[in-house]
Amino acid sequence: CSSDVPNEALDVIDHVTRRYEPGHSADLTLSGFYQKMLKRRTSGFVLELHDGTVASKQVGPEFHTPRVFIVRALDTFRVKSCIDFKVWDTEEYYLNIVKLIGCWSYVGQVFANGQNLSIGAGCESHGVVEHEILHALGFYHEQSRYDRDDYVDIVFNNIKTGQEHNFRKVGSDESSTHGTPYDYFSVMHYNKDAFTNGNGSTIITIDPKYQDVIGQRLDMSPLDVQELNLLYKCGKR
């Protein structure tokens, strides 16, 4: 595994400096994937789960405190959706959960033979782990919705150089909201000062009462869960 942060990944926490240490990893496999273009907050690489099963290796004790949050997050997906986890065997596509720099993931299935998802130092939060797993399952950021301009203003002049990609708007030709309303309470929404360069907030909510609401990392919101189940057609299984 590399300790370099890939340009295509989202959510790098830039103040985290802990580097990857050999052996500090756990593997989750998104087995059962079959190729199908999805339209949500998803990329063209996203594949739908064939049977709702995600294979995994056990999260090792080397994760220490983060292990608790990883296991708890995986259990939350089991309880709130049709997505389940099993022990990794020989699947070609799987997530490799590692301690790299910060917290980040690719959106959807991108690489065979192990796709890194970083839960590094500073990522010890149930909601943060959910956030990154949702990226791997195909979710973009809430503020990347194609209708976001009706709900938030992105202040690009206040975004730290090199982090602008975290705020890009994803068009309706690449994604779908599945008819759900904009969700200020989404675990996929950034907070008002995300990646600020120090000149002020990077996100301003059109309705000011939500300015201090966005960015919660307690748990998936009801709308997050609804969209996850719509995306994976959980009601039809």
Q: Strand fraction band?
A: 5-15%
Strand order of the largest sheet: 5-4-1-6-8-7
Ends apart, CA distance between termini: 36 Å
Q: Main β-sheet, in a few words?
A: 6 strands, mixed
Q: Give the averaged pLDDT, no decimals.
A: 76
Order of helices and strands: EEEEHEEEEHEEH
Low-confidence stretches: 13-52
Helical content (DSSP H or I, runs of 4+):
10-25%
Number of helices, where a helix is a run of at least 4 consecutive DSSP H or I residues: 3
Instruction: Name the quaternary structure.
Output: single chain
Overall morphology: globular
* CATH architecture annotation name of the largest domain: 3-Layer(aba) Sandwich
| CATH level 1 class label of the largest domain | Alpha Beta
Cα-atom radius of gyration: 17 Å
CATH H-level name of the largest domain... which superfamily? Collagenase (Catalytic Domain)
Structural category is alpha+beta
CATH-derived topology of the largest domain: Collagenase (Catalytic Domain)
* Total of domains: 2
Count all strands and give the number: 10
Walk me through the structure.
- The chain has 237 residues and is α+β, with helices and mostly antiparallel strands.
- It folds into two domains: 53-137, Collagenase (Catalytic Domain) (3-Layer(aba) Sandwich), CATH 3.40.390.10; 142-232, Collagenase (Catalytic Domain) (3-Layer(aba) Sandwich), CATH 3.40.390.
- 16% of the residues lie in helices and 15% in strands.
- The protein contains three helices and ten strands, in the order E-E-E-E-H-E-E-E-E-H-E-E-H.
- The strands form three sheets. A six-stranded mixed β-sheet has the order 5-4-1-6-8-7, with helices on one face. It has a two-stranded antiparallel ribbon with strand order 2-3.
- Helix 1 (65-80) packs across helix 2 (126-136).
- The longest helix has 16 residues, at 65-80.
- It is globular and about 50 Å long.
- The termini are far apart.
- InterPro entries: Astacin-like_dom, MetalloPept_cat_dom_sf, Peptidase_M12A, Peptidase_Metallo.
- The active site is at residue 132.
- Its cofactor is Zn(2+).
